[in-house]
């Protein structure tokens, strides 16, 4: 196990993806709004998702220099996407958004966590 990402670039790729996702969450396009409505997340809570994602990106970036911070941010993203998957399953919203976006990001974050921090 390492407290700094090795290799670093998969963590950087995740940070860019989550930053883009966070930017879209502040003013969600129709497909994101439909997903959030589909899982039953109240509209007045949507801003919380953007804050969580921005915080995760900041942690991933800080984790390049501060031991353990990137590991914690990556673990937090895994928990975030596990929770999202649970929300999709609970709501019965298991279409394309669930399989591609939610489970795809869950798999990607788990792989990067294992590859860059645990192996």
UniProtKB/TrEMBL annotation:
The keyword Transmembrane helix applies. Keywords: Membrane, Transmembrane, Transmembrane helix. The keyword Flavoprotein does not apply. The chain crosses the membrane at residues 6-24, 45-66, 72-91, 98-118. It holds the Pfam family DoxX_2. It comes from the Bacteria. One of its GO terms (cellular component) is membrane. It is found in: Membrane. It is a multi-pass membrane protein. Its main location: membrane. This is DoxX family protein.
């Amino acid at each position: 196990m390492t407290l700094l990402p090795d290799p670093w670039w998969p963590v950087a790729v995740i940070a860019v993806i989550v930053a883009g996702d966070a930017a879209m969450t502040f003013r969600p396009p129709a497909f994101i709004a439909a997903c959030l409505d589909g899982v039953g997340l109240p509209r007045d809570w949507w801003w919380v998702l953007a804050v969580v994602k921005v915080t995760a990106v900041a942690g991933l970036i800080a984790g390049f220099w501060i031991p353990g911070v990137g590991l914690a941010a990556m673990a937090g993203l895994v928990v975030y996407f596990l929770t999202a998957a649970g929300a999709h399953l609970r709501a019965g919203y298991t279409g394309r958004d669930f399989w591609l976006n939610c489970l795809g990001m869950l798999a990607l974050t788990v792989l990067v966590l294992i590859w860059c921090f645990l192996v």
